[in-house]
Amino acid sequence: MTTIPVLPSPQGIAKLPDYIQSDGKLRDAAQKLEATFLAEMLKSAGLGASRDTFGGGIGEEQFGSFLRQAQAKEMAATGGIGLAEALFEAMKVRLDA
What we know:
Layout: H1 18-45, H2 58-77, H3 83-96
């Protein structure tokens, strides 16, 4: 039987090293870029566009972008199309150089 070692408590850790913090910021930026790209693709696909019959009128047109952005953000957060990972790796190589 294997025993699992006890990890130190989080109170003893002052802050994460800079390279880990920058990785988190890079990954967040890459994910936001992917979400923006996906929102544009959803817009081109017609998601959130007002319908001719039984549509929501001017309000539907104005708030359709919020729907697309929220769905794109969720798509990117759950793996998306892999664009965020490619962007992250490219930015990390550029940052490390």
